[in-house]
Write a structure and sequence with these properties.
0% strand
Amino acid sequence: MTIEDWLKAAVADAERRGMPELKPLLEAIARATRALRAADFADDAAPR
């Protein structure tokens, strides 16, 4: 499942449940997930 697929399903579910106010939160979660997946965590793996 892609992030976009998840977001569409999550927004549709929230709307079905009468909670459309969750849409901005779900969109923020999707943006954060995209950013985390795009991050390069191997730049400096040395312990500090």
